[in-house]
Design goal:
Blueprint (H helix, E strand, L loop, with lengths): L1 H27 L1 E14 L2 E4 L6 E9 L2 E9 L4 E3 L8 E6 L3 E8 L6 E13 L1
Antiparallel strand pairs: 1-8, 2-7, 3-6, 3-8, 4-5, 4-7
Length: 127
């Protein structure tokens, strides 16, 4: 049983390493231009919805001293184009053929009322 669990841990670490290298390799192919930068201190549950973003490839970076409970990519009409199923990643690349908006739902950590949120959206342009 010990060898099997060690093998599983090694495979998980290798998978995470491959994902990390692939992500940064893809980022190195692009120059980034900051389109939107929203930073503020909020109370309670907070929501952010970006303006409409034209089709293309973007880096979406979300930071908070609370927690991110949901990130959705929606069309101009409100139809959900992408919604993570398992875990919300706070830094990801998204490519779309249609204009879209980014919706983020933030929650405070238990015991805290005020917390900071930050959403940055970069347009990625091939080098």
């Amino acid at each position: 049983m010990g060898k099997l669990s060690t093998l599983v841990v090694i495979l998980i670490l290798l998978g995470a390493g491959v994902w990390y290298l692939n992500y940064h390799l893809k980022l190195s192919e692009y120059d980034k231009e900051l389109l939107f930068n929203e930073e503020k201190t909020v109370q309670g549950v907070a929501y952010y919805t970006s303006p409409v973003i034209s089709a293309g490839t973007y880096r979406i970076k979300i930071e908070t001293s609370g927690s991110v409970d949901n990130v959705r990519i929606i069309s101009e009409s409100g139809k959900v184009l992408h919604e993570p199923l398992i875990a919300v990643r706070s830094d990801f690349i998204y490519t779309s053929d249609v204009p879209f908006k980014v919706e983020v739902e933030f929650h405070p950590e238990e015991g805290y009322n005020k917390y900071s949120i930050s959403v940055r959206i970069y347009k990625l342009v091939k080098k």
